Amino acid sequence: MDVIEFSMKNKFLIEMRERGYLSQCTDLSRLIDICDKKPITGYIGFDCTANSLHVGSLLQIMILKLMQKHGHQPIVLLGGGTTLIGDPSGKDTTRKILEKKEINKNILSIKKVFNKILNTSNKKTKPIFVNNADWLLKLNYIKFLRDVGRHFTINKMLTFDSVKLRLEREQSLSYMEFNYMILQAYDFYQLFKDQKCILQIGGSDQWGNIINGVDLIRRILKKEAFGITSPLITLASGAKMGKTEKGAIWLNEKLLSSYDYWQFWRNTNDSDVKKFLYYFTDIEVSKIQNIIKDEKDINNLKILLANEATRLLHGKAASLKAEKTAKEIFKDRVLSKNLPEILIKKVDLDNGINILDFLSENRILASKSEARRAIINKGIKIDDVVVSDLTTIIEAKNFKNKSLKISFGKKKHYLIKIT
To answer: What pLDDT, on a 0 to 100 scale, did the predictor assign at position 2?
Structure first.
């Protein structure tokens, strides 16, 4: 991306650049001119393959939030249509094919996260939610090929990373997936017509798909549209953002407690924490700069990051509660009543529950094999006593005052209660 002098009026794109959100833009100087003159509408699309997004999608949500801050209106496209196919970008194999009913349930669940993080009260900037199934499922195949398909060449489509990398690894790419980029381009075209949406934003792996949409609008409507990509985030460890050895960091509290979410941010690698303060909090850029300059204790920066990131998703009360719980556990060495709770019925303990089954069924660990490895590596404790026997049975007699604590490693703790 060329270095371009930003207009002082154009605070949205200035802050995008300052926070590190801005990777590429199809025509940055022209987009600056337009943003200087009037508010714009831009969109980001999200897969609906699960009933929750994970933290890997959070950067995109933060960009939508930034749009609102500067008077622009975001569109949240929930891909009820494209999820029926699956985006091949970054994938070695075809995604699992989901039924419409399951996708619609996922959409309802995912939408709740946006309503938590984004401002829904301002009429001029509140998010517009759209489902591309509304237009994609109505398409006439022959008409679509004549009107839209003729603007795409196989030669060009084969050059995009989502296709090229898959073929280079000799992984099969179905014709169904090959069509995904055309449907995404058509989404942009449809939103341009219906919502006057001139901007599509996505991760840098979406660059080719975004360019397709910009070109399609230019070819059919003879109008200008724009695309922006943000950097793909990887942790200092090299792992993809949103995935850990312990499983996905979900944004839905039913899948991951606010306490575990807080702990994820508190455990950020030292080399990531300053960058993540810009990415994943809404603290003003100038204030972050001063904090980083003045604060010498990296752990205080991690606590600030954990507090602010958790506040955005779960609210201030949950953030303060998570910090208090962590302090009680790690500094005061007491059993906090604010730990994530797992409730079990007394009748389920009548015959006892094998420790491997208990850990996997209650999502303390993702599977029995992971639970087995954790026990072998002395990573599981019950009431601070290391579990060394894979055949350990959890029974009612293990509970004191109808509760016990199970710990995985030093930082993951659960309060198990009998109901």
So the answer is: 46
Q: How many domains does the chain have?
A: 3
Specify the CATH number for the domain of residue 399.
3.10.290.10
Write the DSSP symbol of residue 51: S
Q: Which amino acid is at 17?
A: R
Distance CA 319, CA 321 (A): 5
Q: What does the alpha-carbon distance between residue 404 and residue 413 come to, in Å, rounded to a whole number?
A: 10
- Angle in degrees, 0-180, between the axes of helices 180-195 and 207-221, rounded to the nearest 10: 50
Q: Edge to edge, what strands does the sheet with 385-386 contain?
A: 341-344, 412-418, 403-408, 380-382, 385-386
Full residue range of the structural domain in which residue 371 is found: 341-418
Judged against a pLDDT cut of 70, whether residue 246 lies above it is answered with: no
403: left (phi over 0), alpha (psi -120 to 50) or beta: beta
Decide if 42 contacts 201 (C-beta within 8 A).
yes
Per-residue pLDDT, 338? 62
Tokens 């016990």 belong to residue: 404
- The pTM score is 0.79
Q: How many residues does the chain have?
A: 419
